[in-house]
Amino acid sequence: MKFDQPAAAENPIDRARVVGQPLSRIDGPLKVSGTAPYAYERHDVAPSAAYGFMVGSAIAKGTISAMDTQDAEAAPGVLAVVTHANAGALGQGNMNTARLLGGPDIQHYDQAVALVIAETFEQARDAAKLVRIDYALDTGKFDLKAQKSTALAPKKVQGSPADTEVGDFAGAFKSAPVKVDQTYTTPDQSHAMLEPHATTAAWSGDKVTVWTSNQMVTWAVKELAKTLKIPPENVRVVSPYIGGGFGSKLFLRADALLAALGARAVNRPVKVALARPQIPNNTTHRPATIQRLRIGASNDGIIQAIGHEVWAGDLPGGDVESAAMQTRLLYAGKNRMTKHRLAVLDLPEANAMRAPGEAVGLLALEVAMDELAEACNVDPVELRIRNDVQFDPEAGPERPFSSRKFVECLREGAVRFGWAKRSPKPGQVRDGQWLVGMGVAAAFRNNLTNTSGARVAIDGKGHITVSTDMTDIGTGTYTIIAQTAAEMMGVGIDQVTVNLGDSSFPASAGSGGQWGANSSTAGVYAACDTLRGLLAQRAGFNAQDAVFEDGMIKAAGKAIPIGQAAGREGLTVEDKIEFGDLGDRYAQATFGAHFAEVGVDIYTGETRVRRMSGAFAAGRILNPKTARSQVIGAMTMGVGAALMEELVVDTRFGYFVNHDMAEYHVPVHADIPEQDVLFIDELDDKSSPMKAKGVGELGLCGAGAAIANAIYNATGVRLREYPMTLDKVLGGLARV
Prior knowledge:
- 25% of the residues lie in helices and 25% in strands.
- The chain has 18 helices and 30 strands.
- The longest helix has 24 residues, at 516-539.
- It is globular, with a radius of gyration of 27 Å.
- The N and C termini lie far apart (62 Å).
């Protein structure tokens, strides 16, 4: 199905009998009972699996001058030790900046250099300590601030120009009556998902199957095939359940490659899970940024010039963090400029983490907007409303937004939160030893779509089975796909079975970039539409007139059970959604408004989030229950970004020091207060036939900035360096 024209005013999804209902997850019982099969627990398919333990590089840059594995190989239970010397010729995936098995050259700290395989996990782990490696150390670059002056413009940023300019930014900024010119910094961050990177691998002849934890099954097949130098048809990837990813599992990682190499070496299945302390340095992370915001406005807060410059770092050949992308679209202003600069660093690979670009870009932009509001003496909510724009401000009115209810989010969110009670003057509200303040920030995330396919089958009893290689990373994919099929075929959700995460199924959009729900359900829509046509034909009805409801096909005053129309043998179809140029003709994005109230201890500088609220416009909400779960999880991640999350870089040796959950702090239950979520009614007929958009990342974008602005409102202390830990707050309180 080609989606190149806006969706019809009414289609089967618009009935909203199943889609749009707050149904509980159909996979929930398996998860809470511990019977959902995760990658490391596939005893059903690999009962005799051996265990692999990764050995990581002890240096960040250099070469291996000698490696002695004899003691490890002689240790109890050890079956083999795989290194670059005996792994065979390997390629490198297009999406991996660094090689997944290092040696002799070392590209970053904890890059995999060996895999020890043994009968038990403990034997493999203990023997790994016996691998002796000598290194020749090279001088590396590990400090973004020190390398900022060497940063260069990349060729592209997310497929778009690295730099943009409209009008005369420099002149308009210089002449603006009110100016904000500030620099903001965000640290390196870790995905810190619950399930580690894990894979069980087994070979059958020249074909390999990996039961792994990966968000993008089709990508994983291609990347593993290229790395192993075997045909893609010889690779099967199975990933039906994933315990969180946040982008860290978008790409092939060392666990999958090492498990495949280990299984080939010992001729039996091998399972590999990265230990928690290995994950931050071996896998990917969100890179640190330095961001300069310049906004010039009239005295009443109308933006006349807006500029956003970003510096970030990565390994040679890597990508820059796209932190200025939202500034190209969010606010009006005739004179505009954005720039991205990439410095070469020898830290572990930087790559996508939940809402790459916008998540950290809004931490800077939305604090700058708060500073502008104060400078203009305009309420921060009103300032954003005054600078709303209904078209792409870089392209002009000829590229309108497909839908944009940003102002509605601000207004309805403010009323719901009680924004009118906020004191415009900082430091005025006390509750015992706590200074109390409120903050607001915009939420913005581009609406991305990708081709997505599905196979839909119906049996003689009218039961529907959907199969697609789409993944569920804890987001509720199983449920919304079942809802889509049930709505399209006119059956209850209990009459639908969903199979996910197997590369033998039709290729889907996968989970990432907030495109998964909208794209994958649109693919199921397309396949169900094809099936509806065949069933109507078999029933002797005109497909355009047929109505599917209550398990029946109805037309011309007649009704036939869908199972009867399918026949004893049933029917199976495949189709996919392919998106045309609507995303080029219309700016497509999701919007929201975050509100936060914090208390700051006047003696210690400790910040406590008292309550959070958000209003969001993201097209049709496919399932309000699972969508709300996504949003509050994202808001929680925003608390982490604002107050505690930071991978601390040892700039002498080039590694992240706090590489475990004891020292890399994330929010816990006690940190999270009441969270209120409002979804603004919206349908976007230019996004997909589902008229939906993504929502999984929107709730993170801007959440931390709302907290930062609330801290300022509470204390009068303006911080521009994340995370806003108590030592930074306390230093400002002393001045206040």
